[in-house]
């Protein structure tokens, strides 16, 4: 009997568990370690923040999925590895032994180089922490809508733009018109335009949308400090000298890896992500695989985006089966360009692929909604 251990309930592992449920492999014992019972689907998260989806619609329940795959499920947080003894260390369980290990734990926004950010900002990941803070802020707004508030997002990539638009749209739906202007929205980005890795069309269009909706865009601004004032408000200091006070700050910047990964002895890149080959296999330890944001494809580096985690699910499953059977592995080849559908929070979306863009259109949001619901249906049926 061989032990296959999966750390994390990300998109790739959810797909792999579904495949193991449908195509059981004799002679293996599967263990899933995840610090959440319900894992968020990144494609639906902005729609959830905008009020289009329920919590259940935007999350995959890992418990029935693990049961169907006949996997032991530990709701716990992995904190380290012993690569000599092939063990996973957890916060609240004894060490868990493995023959084959797969890691799909996502990433977190990098905050270490900005004093105060790790203490006072709300990181976009882990998602449960983001949602708890969002619900708390939403409750405060509804309890005293007449009070003036200010909300800031640091990071002008697709995640930061979509989060800001979704939150604003949802609060506008909940508040009476006379109270909507009591909330100010700010977005800080270090480049000269938002969505730097997307088409110029998408960047220009979404900038215009944000400006029309009264969202303050602070471009070419690097946040250098975040500190709490005696008034309990947060002060953002920028390298340029710009200073703004806010009530909440969402941090949606470049991704970072948990410290325990680089401390484990696995080969990592300069940001601490696990380096893998075309088989999604660690380049330093052949019995360890990684996928999603936590992995860096050595031969085909790609942005940290949910679309790649989804596409890696099936080849990851196939390679886990093959290595358990001591057979040759298959290669995963990511697409050169990928389509991004960015919701505006009000039932429309902008499409971006390579140099091209389209929208905002309700038809694009309807298409995105259909894609996301179809993906989630495979776990709910």
UniProtKB/TrEMBL annotation:
Highest taxon in the source lineage: Bacteria
Keyword vocabulary terms for this entry: FAD, Flavoprotein, Oxidoreductase
Annotated ranges, domain FAD/NAD(P)-binding: 3-313
Co-factor(s): FAD
Gene3D superfamilies named among the record's database cross-references: 3.50.50.100
SUPFAM superfamilies, per the entry: FAD/NAD(P)-binding domain
Family as reported in the entry's similarity comment: Belongs to the NADH dehydrogenase family.
Protein name in the entry: FAD-dependent oxidoreductase
Organism name: Phormidium pseudopriestleyi FRX01
Lineage, top ranks: Bacteria, Bacillati, Cyanobacteriota, Cyanophyceae, Oscillatoriophycideae
């Amino acid at each position: 009997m061989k032990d296959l251990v999966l750390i994390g309930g990300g998109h790739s592992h959810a797909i792999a568990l579904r495949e193991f449920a449908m195509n059981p492999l004799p002679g293996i014992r599967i263990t899933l370690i995840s610090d959440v019972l319900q894992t968020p689907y990144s494609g639906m998260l902005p729609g959830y923040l905008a009020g289009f989806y329920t919590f259940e619609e935007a999350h995959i329940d890992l418990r029935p999925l693990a049961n169907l795959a006949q996997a032991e499920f530990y709701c716990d947080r992995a904190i380290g590895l012993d690569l000599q003894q092939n063990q996973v260390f957890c916060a609240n369980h004894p060490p868990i032994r493995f023959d084959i290990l797969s890691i799909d734990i996502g990433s977190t926004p990098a905050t270490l180089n900005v004093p105060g950010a790790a203490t006072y900002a709300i990181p976009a990941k882990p998602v449960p922490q983001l949602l708890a803070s969002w619900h708390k802020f939403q409750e405060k707004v509804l309890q005293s809508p007449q009070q003036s508030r200010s909300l800031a997002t640091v990071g002008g990539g697709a995640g930061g733009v979509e989060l800001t638009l979704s939150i604003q749209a949802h609060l506008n739906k909940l508040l009476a018109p006379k109270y909507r202007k009591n909330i100010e929205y700010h977005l800080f980005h270090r480049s000269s335009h938002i969505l730097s890795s997307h088409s110029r069309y998408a960047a220009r269009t979404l900038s215009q949308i944000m400006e029309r909706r009264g969202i303050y865009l602070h471009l070419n601004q690097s946040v250098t400090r975040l500190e709490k004032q005696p008034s309990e408000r947060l002060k953002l200091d920028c390298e340029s000298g710009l200073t703004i006070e806010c009530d909440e700050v969402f941090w949606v910047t470049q991704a970072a890896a948990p410290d325990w990964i680089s401390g484990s002895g696995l080969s990592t890149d300069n940001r601490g992500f696990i380096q893998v080959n075309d088989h999604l296999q660690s380049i330093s330890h052949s019995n360890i695989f990684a996928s999603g944001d936590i992995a860096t494809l050595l031969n085909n580096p790609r942005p940290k985006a949910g679309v790649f985690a989804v596409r890696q699910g099936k080849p990851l499953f196939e390679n886990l089966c093959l290595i358990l059977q001591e057979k040759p592995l298959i290669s995963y080849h990511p697409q050169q360009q990928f389509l991004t559908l960015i919701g505006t929070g009000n039932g429309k979306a902008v499409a971006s692929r390579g140099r091209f863009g389209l929208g905002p259109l309700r038809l694009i949001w309807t298409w995105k909604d259909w894609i996301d619901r179809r993906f989630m249906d495979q776990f709910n049926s």
